[in-house]
Write a structure and sequence with these properties.
- There is one protein chain.
- The protein is globular.
- About 60% of the residues lie in helices and about 0% in strands.
- It has 2 helices and no strands.
- The protein is mainly α and about 60 residues long.
Length: about 60
């Protein structure tokens, strides 16, 4: 199980609109929940977070 102190949700404000930052955080929270419920493993979680961050940096 992931403890809260092990998770950091960081979104730099540069090149992101406020709505994008909120969307990224919601998606990361969903991923954390999936990992805690053992629906995805830690590698899948890390890959998904990396994808999300890249996706929003391209905007």
């Amino acid at each position: 199980m992931i403890k809260n102190e092990n998770i950091k949700v960081i979104c730099p404000k540069e090149n992101l609109r406020d709505n994008d930052e909120i969307t990224i955080n919601i998606q990361k929270i969903i991923l954390i929940s999936l990992h805690e419920e053992k629906k995805i493993n830690l590698q899948q979680y890390n890959d998904a977070v990396e994808y999300i961050e890249k996706k929003y940096k391209q905007r």
